[in-house]
Amino acid sequence: MKTLLRPAITLFVLLSAITGIVYPLTVTSIAQAVFPGTAAGSLLVRGGKPVGSTLIGQNFAEQKYFWGRPSATSPQPYNGITSGGSNQGPLNPALVAAVKERIETLKAVDPGNQLPIPADLVTASASGLDPHISPAAARYQVARVAAARKLPPEQVAALIDVHTEGRQWGLFGEPRVNVLLLNLTLDDQQGK
Amino acid sequence: MTIHAWLLLGVYLALLLLAAKPLGSYIAAVMEGRGLALRFGGGIESLLYRLCGVRRDEEMGWLHYALAILLFNVLGALAVYTLQRLQLWLPLNPQGMAHVSPDSSFNTAVSFATNTNWQGYSGESTMSYLTQMLGLTVQNFFSAATGIVVVIALIRSFARHTARTIGNAWVDLTRITLYVLLPIALVYALFLVSQGAIQNFDPYKDVTTLQVTEYDNPKLDAAGQPLKDDKGVAITEPATTQTQTLPMGPVASQEAIKTLGTNGGGFFNANSAHPYENPTPLSNFIQMLSIFLIPAALCLTFGRMVGDMRQGWAVLAAMTLMFVVVAIAAISFEQQGNPLLANLGVDMAAGNMEGKETRFGIAESGLFATITTLASCGAVNAMHDSFTPLGGFVPLWDMMLGEVVFGGVGTGLYGMLVFAVMAVFIAGLMIGRTPEYLGKKIEAHEIKMVSITILVTPFLVLAGTAIAVMTTDGIAGIANPGAHGFSEILYAFTSAANNNGSAFAGLSANTPFYNGLLAVAMWFGRFGVIVPVLALAGGLAAKKRITASAGTMPTHGPLFVVLLIGTVVLVGALNYVPALALGPVVEHLMLYPAH
């Protein structure tokens, strides 16, 4: 056993230093030199103040804004330090009740809307911080946002097209719209 | 499956198989002590050995090797435990994270030392940056290295004959870490940052959101526990905020080795669903590729080291076939969506999106779930708890196969080779000949070790689940009512004993009961397998090599591939079908009642 103890402890300490200190510090220094923006969190700044991150969604409930995915973080939705999903199973009555309530909220603010309700607009995301919705979920909200902002719907719909990202390299992922960027553009255009 | 999903699966397989061969040859070269990398890093390597008092040409017998591995991993668990228990007093803790509780620290220490990376805690509200990098990142490397060196020792035992030793554990651990894991992780981490993963040591950042959020804040008592009214409903008070706190940290460096080493423990609670861990569909694809990369390559390392590449290709073919079937199943079931929500008028064209991220959608979430559970990775980019019953059946089943279809780095291949020995043994019984594999006679000692290896995990899974469902502490953790609640417990023990680490995460597992019991399952699920595998290696290395005769069953053709698949699937099914029937199968029948 003694012949094992010295190599075990020394090797453990030395390899820990290499993989636990040298390695992360090397990654950090190269990353911050080459990709300073993303390494720091892809922050969005307006008027010198950070207003969010392009990668992290925010909670929107006002009529003039496009709404993002429902978020299951607690206590408030889109809480940056309690990421996670609802973990509700497919048969859980709480899931069905939550989706029903979300549909009623959507119908209440836009009673005339006859479009089918896209699944991603009424189901909670995995991270609770999903920055995106599907293009269908964005189009579903055009009439409401246009009315609240007194803008022609065509103009709002055109903005969605501008903000729609296709599949990465045409193959990976799904087409999507970044909700925070879309709402920021709307605010910027109206000079707020 | 959509055309897009088929295309994705095809591109994935093509790239994986393309990358496997060169990496497999490279690993073989490194582990045999030759190649360019060793000349390049030889100086550091020699210095390490000198400081440790290791003589690199001094090899170990299997028992010595096993003791070295055990000792190295016990040290790892102790280090992770200590760092968590003292983190408030240590540097790199800008958020002032408190010391972690003893039971949670114990669970996490065992979890990361065993390559399980089950997480009872939420990273962003529990762990300091120092604990993450010096405790958890280090164990991500070491537990991966441990798995790989054990399979290398087993491969050597087939390649050698009448030998007393199977390698030097210190040299093997050092080489796999320095020449394989570190360089790939470094490049991969930088790629992740290019996509948007964060890498810094800043304190968390407060941003002012566009609109004010109104919410119900739970009232807490003096001890910080939520207050409840007479009916057990939490008491809340209305609150508002216009501040969002963004978590920071050295994420990319940990994320890279998390998937490359089939570890799976996320920096954040949401794991690979978190946009700061897995920001784009491309980063997601590379994460999926990196999970299977080393397990696939090791099959060809095996072929090279035993001097017959066809042996490696046969094992890889068996794995690939089983993977394709379950991947198609998972994606198809999730694409169907949830009929209960469709009844409410929701358009289910996008599939079952509860617990999934928009940027990944169904195809990349279903594929990720399959890959992460077949490999004992356990990282998740979607919440498995919210999968459809049969969609959730797939990850459970994947783990129940024993993590041998690709499996964890090293662990997958040694598990599969154990099944290969079992398969030739069964074939030998059928035709009445002494079974042999790669020129080694399979005798009583081998079959004993193989049996222990195969039976340890099902025992831990089924006994653990039984204990949990019979105790109030076990039942208390359940989040979803009905059969799904049982599935949550079954999933937890399946994941722990097979060292996977993913979860039906609704289960409240950060309690002394689950922290303790799951830690036991993880430890014995890991070392209860590694020790008999090394004993098997010791026995095989000592055997004479017999030359193949007309009666030798070839172990590189389609017949053997089918036999191997049959053995793996049958053992999995025989062990677990009753338990599966009580969980996801019942749930499926309830979701689609007969009319």
Explain this structure to me?
The complex is a heterodimer of chains A (192) and B (595). Chain A contains seven helices and six strands; from the N terminus they run ααββαββαααββα. Chain A is mainly alpha-helical and 192 residues long. Chain A has two domains: 1-39; 41-189, no CATH class. Chain A has a three-stranded antiparallel beta sheet. In chain A, strands 1-2 form a two-stranded antiparallel sheet. Chain A is elongated. The model of chain A has no long low-confidence stretch (mean pLDDT 95). Chain B has 595 residues and is mainly alpha-helical. Among the domains of chain B are: 205-246, no CATH class; 410-591, no CATH class. In chain B, the strands form two sheets. Chain B has a two-stranded antiparallel ribbon. A two-stranded antiparallel sheet of chain B has the order 4-5. In chain B, helix 4 runs parallel beside helix 17 (512-542), helix 5 packs parallel to helix 17 and helix 14 packs antiparallel against helix 16. The mean pLDDT of chain B is 95. Chains A and B meet through helix 1, strand 2, helix 3, strand 3 and strand 4 of A and helix 1, helix 2, helix 3, helix 5 and helix 6 of B. Strand 3 (117-118) of chain A pairs parallel with strand 3 of chain B, so a sheet runs across the interface. Chain A: It is found in: Cell membrane.
